[in-house]
Specification:
3 helices, mainly alpha
Length: 70
Amino acid sequence: ELTEGEKACEGLLALLEDNNSKQEDIEQKVVALRRAKENAAKELAKARQELREVLTLRQQARLVLMGLLD
């Protein structure tokens, strides 16, 4: 199943490929994509915080080195 962001990307790509797309439709898809990205960033931040709470300091340090945690 596609995420909200993936659906927004597909919809925007379809509009961009259609030369007859209306500006308003493109604008709506861009807004939807931005909203999906904001929501995903919030969810990721929450998941990272929850992960930090169950990891040891050494585990956190390894994940920071790997770029998975900040």
